[in-house]
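Supplementary Methods, section 5.1.

A reviewer requested that the exact input to the structure prediction be made available. We therefore reproduce it here, unchanged from the version used in the analyses.
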Amino acid sequence: MKILVTGGAGFMGSSIVRDLVARGVEVRVLDKTKGALAELKSPNLEIFEGRIEDREAVQQAMENVEVVYHLAESYSSQPYGVLDIDVKGNINLLEAAAEHGIKHFLFTSTHRVYGKARYLPIDEEHPFNPEESGRALYAICKLTNEKLCLQYYRERSLPITIFRLWWAFGSEIGGKALRNVIDTALKGGLIRIPEEAGGSFLHNDDLVGAFQSATLDSKAYGEAFNLSSGAFVSWQELAELVCELTDSSSPLELVPRQSWTGDVSIGDDQSIPHICDLDITKAERLIGYEPKYSAQELKALLREAVTRLVLARKGR
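The structure derived from this sequence is encoded token-by-token as follows.
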């Protein structure tokens, strides 16, 4: 079996590619740069440097492939960028996948399609309100691409699976809001955090496990699944961890979620005060998904990743 991974040189994609290569699976990557894969050498790995919005590059990358993992995205805040790259690129991939008789197409989406939680935990039947996301354009695009995927499943018989997640991390962790908190703590400034807000982290190892479990499983066809590692972490916990790791004297102020309007110490993303507690029982039931780590182990790994980010921000 040969698997095409779009965005395979990115943060999440490279974890998936490394796992596939380690298991002896033939992998082809389509990405605009070799990125994190530049040093990875394997006879099972092909890297096509190209863009998903380039129809010819997509057609070439799809040759002799059986499964597609679609993780590439622009994360653009510009409407034409989202349309020209993300939506057009997704259509290019879906068209090519249908033409080439791809056996399974797996797409990564986001919790942001749900918007503000109407109930907790959030299951896959939760209503969609992407315009409420702090990155509404991104969320609307992801939901559009989900709908396009399902259209190809229903009308072109292309087996589709969708994954929705909050915040993924591995040995490293990203996120502008977290960087803002760290920078404020390093300066000893006031950190204002919305009460109770937070979400269900996903470790890259569990992302890898979900793809592995779902691939070519007919119970996953035409389905969307929430993914997390099963542990809810609040912004208060993150801020307290940052203050500990930076040995900061920054005062921490908790703000009622209902009155939160954003703050320079964390940012003004409208989704920061949301509670994103994702229900993963559907994935557990249908595809046998099971988080690799206990809640205690996950928080220890999160601590290690945040520590590395703190050191990086100190060294700027």
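The chain has two domains: 2-168+201-227, 172-199+231-276+292-314. These observations are discussed further in the main text.
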